[in-house]
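Quick log. Single chain, no ligands specified.
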Amino acid sequence: MTADRRRTPPLLLAVVSALAALLTGCATAVGDGPGPARPDSLARPDSPASSVQLVPPADEASTGLSTPEGTLLVADFGADTVTFVDPQRGAIGSVRVGTAPYAVALGADGRAWVSTAEGVAEVDTRSRSLLRTIAHRTATGPAETGEYRGGGMGLALSPDGSRLYVGVNIPGKNGVLEVIDTASGQVTGVAPVGRRPFDVDVSADGREVYATGHDSFDVTVVAADGLGTRRIEVAPYGTKGGLGSWLKPHYAAVRPSDGKLLLPFEGERLAVVDPATGQVSVEPMTANTHQHGVTVAPDGRLLVVGSGPITGDDAGPSLTVRQPDGRERVYPLGLPHENVALSRDGRTAYVTGGFTRDGGWDGITLVDLDSGATHRLEIGHRPLGVAVL
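-> predicted structure:
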């Protein structure tokens, strides 16, 4: 080595030394970047979302991208992207998927499906890339944004992952349920459903699909084989007011214990729908606020998002956690929210701030279900649908 250095010209040695120092400095700068957000800090909802979108570490930006388990995938209803979110660090990447993405469904194979105004986007969550876009078979008008835009809304996968069911909104008309073969990416069937299908759910055995028609006060039961349909009216307050009524169904969850559908209304009433008989019973709720998104835990806990008041007597935005025996705990949220997902360990709720109507904000709220502590992350743009990888 000593002999080699003696044969190296002095000028070249100086250049090599300078480059080595520069590279060392760059490596130090990457290692000293921003750390995780403090859990006791609250992001300001009026701040630009870009203020907390962190640059991915070098290993995530290189070939062989890694998306850790527990990462959130959020649909940016106010943009054309989905955002990958580390609950501790914030946004770690995004993928363009189409206009006004609404809902997200995850397969066991690392693929995610996202409903948009233009069709359904298929995303590889490992490489964080768009694989393809599947156009709607049904004409829904131009790809637009906003609460009443046409195109895909609720969606759900069959238990075996072979079929994707998408509720398609046709502005001014009843909607349809489109069936997509996930292997070929082809729309293989269409069934009529209610107006503005906010949510789509599938029975545990995969034999039935349930489309919640927001503007038609109903759930349409669709047979997976044959696509025959049955309509069940779900209107615990009645249908007075029609399209102008606030007292309509939004999202549903399938109860693990018996397969019945749970649809919350106004933090006052829980409609329990038996899809086999069409019977609807009503149980009391306690949040007293306009309610939207729901999810159900494997142990039967029901999580319900309260988006805020619609009359002077209503309470503010909240998250309700309802036990199978009907006991409820209500967590105040402070700002309007739309949908919710639950961490894999069942201890943290992730509540999106997008809200389908005006008044939402660009971020999510993390709720510790043991302590009730909340933490806000500003991410994405009007985030709506959310799922946990």
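The chain has three helices and 28 strands.
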